[in-house]
Amino acid sequence: MAINKENDRLLKILSTIESGVAKIYKRFSAKKNFSKPVQKFWQYISKEEELHAEYFEKIRKGMNTDNIPVIINIDIERLKEFVNKVNRSVKDVMKEEYSESDAYSLGASIEVEMDESKFLEGIEITDQKFTRMLKKIENDTEKHRIVLVNYSRGIK
Length: 156
Fold this sequence. Notes:
By secondary structure, the protein is mainly α. It contains 5 helices and 2 strands. The protein has one domain: Up-down Bundle (Ferritin), CATH 1.20.1260.
């Protein structure tokens, strides 16, 4: 069984990105100065991001263990830039104080500017189970983008 090292690396990076975004959102869910509904909101989307990371790991495993064909056409340098942005944001969120409004703005910026779902366009999988996983990531990301952009503008 041949492991495609490049695709394996790309899927690992995508999983890492989702985990990083989940960490940011999880941090917001634990902010004592945020209202309970706001904490619950961040907790909910943090869990969705964690699920996305798990999906990329499952796809990786399917590709490596079950020989599920995966074609990935993603620029590794763009992906690395994205990882660096997420890592910087994780560090900022750990040390800086954020208001609910600041948190929504950062979340909107992550979902809009960094838009990890753009990378999904470069992944081709024929396996239905994995195709559904990618579609869920895409749909959740779109939902996060819309909600966070609206919340950052004060629209609830």
